[in-house]
Specification:
360 residues, mainly beta, Jelly Rolls, Immunoglobulin-like, 3 domains, 7-stranded mixed β-sheet, 7-stranded antiparallel β-sheet, 2 helices, 3% helix
């Protein structure tokens, strides 16, 4: 059957997003939806019954590849959700779910991790609200008479263990969800490349809510930052968004970070990256595109760590390069064609180079 996703409903949201997925109850991620919420499913993850055996999984005979989410009710009423799982090719994959609640708040919901569904009376909060273990790639979950502020938790499972996407959408009911508990911007990558005459910065987001703009800030010491540019955001979207900026004031070494500001003036900072510019490149990679193997050339001796991530920011390969100026790396295990990001870190763990690579 399908992927394990626990969805914790705090107050039903009215937004749509793309998310990652928490593989345990304690790491449940918030979400909201009025149109469609899409996220990559989990594969190769142990059954929830094995890792968290105290919960009552009711109709679920198995619970492979779990992911947990929570949701908060924004407007009282009933809610109807459609859940669908598809492969990368678009074919349907068996998906199953169980829904718990209602909890008074997120703290109470998380305190029941390991005891969900074991209600002793009708007044206990940890009820099994809905559950399905059919062979279908589409399921419908129902919440009746939800109250503003209630929290619900849902587990969705990936029975086939095939990589794909799960879409979760509210299709009916008089209630709604509260999008205020979801991060306004989900940043999935931020990297830079020194090209001697300029530094090119690129970043991408998977979802945005009321995103007015990004501010790019630069620092010599990772403490005192100066704004150098402002880039308009895309407002609200659940599509992949890509951004870039060229800094023509090249410094030998510099830290860069992003500040994201909402339309209402709220803002947050993302982690910084370190960029070191040399007269000759420290790191080069070829061929690009590649088929099964790449060659790494390092012109400055040292200990480096190579990490390769897919376009969703998931680590798919890592290797330590120990003072070798040229090294061939086999990437035969990368089965999926398309774009990846190859990142090089120095021995202090600072990111010094990132390059897009393409698997043929």
């Amino acid at each position: 059957m399908g992927k394990s996703i626990y969805i914790l409903l705090l107050s039903l949201f009215t937004c749509s997003f793309s998310y990652g997925q928490g593989v345990s109850c304690a790491s449940a991620d918030p979400f909201c939806t009025s149109t469609a919420l899409s996220f990559p499913n989990n594969t190769g993850v142990a059954d929830a019954e094995t890792t968290e055996p105290g919960n009552d999984y009711d109709c679920l005979d198995t619970s492979p590849n779990p992911a947990w989410y929570y949701m908060e009710i924004g407007t009282s009423g009933n809610l109807i959700f459609d859940i669908e799982q598809t492969s990368a090719a678009g074919s349907g994959l068996d998906v199953d779910f169980i829904l718990y609640g209602p909890y008074n708040d997120l703290t109470q919901a998380l305190n029941y991790c390991g005891d969900h569904g074991n209600a002793n009376t009708a007044a206990d909060p940890n009820q099994v609200v809905d559950c399905s273990y059919s062979t279908s790639a589409q399921e419908t979950a129902n919440i009746g008479s939800a109250t503003t502020g209630d929290v619900y938790l849902m587990l969705i499972t990936n029975f086939s263990n095939q990589a794909g996407t799960i879409t979760f959408e509210q299709t009916g009911g008089s209630g709604s969800t509260n999008c205020g508990i979801v991060l306004p911007v989900e940043l999935i990558s931020f990297y830079g490349d020194c090209n001697n005459d300029f530094v090119q910065l690129e970043w991408s987001t998977s979802t945005e809510i009321n995103n007015a703009y990004f501010t790019i800030e630069r620092s010599l010491d990772a403490v005192n930052y100066t704004p150098i540019a402002t880039i308009n955001g895309n407002g609200s979207t659940n599509n992949l968004s890509s951004y870039s900026y060229i800094d023509n004031n090249v410094l030998k070494q510099a830290y860069y970070r992003l500040k994201q500001t909402d339309f209402n003036g709220d803002y947050k900072y993302f982690s910084s990256i370190f960029i070191e510019c040399e007269s000759d490149p420290v790191f080069s990679l070829y061929p690009n595109p590649f088929k099964e193997e790449i060659t790494i050339t390092v012109t400055k001796p040292g200990n480096y760590k190579l990490k390769i991530e897919d376009y969703l920011g998931r680590n798919v390969f890592s290797k330590t390069l120990e003072r070798s100026l040229l090294q061939k790396i086999s990437l035969r295990n990368l089965q999926t064609q398309g774009m990846y990001f190859a990142s090089l870190y120095n021995q202090d763990g600072k990111l010094i180079f990132v390059e897009k690579i393409f698997k043929q």
